[in-house]
User: What shape does this take?
Amino acid sequence: MPSARNVDELIDAPMVVVDGVKITVDGALAGYVRPVEEDGKVALYTELSAILRAKRELWQELEPNRPAPTRCLLHIDEETSALIVKSVVSTVTSAGYPDVSFVVRKLPGD
Assistant: This one.
């Protein structure tokens, strides 16, 4: 996990994890990075999008008088290519989560 300054505490939001091989949302498998790596072009991850959209729809059913959250947390292995990061961010924002935050650890001394 990369380190950073000026960080916030964790919030309640979907957590998308990219470990270099697979993509998960709150622990549920949401796709693999390899197809996009092999294609070499930014692409949307269909299963990731479907899971995130389902989470928003469930929120709207359970909380019809409150706006659905728009924040999503991304925990991406620091070795992940920019192509995969762009594809994941594009997928997350297109699924209704335009407020993307990256999970990092605080630098020592902060």
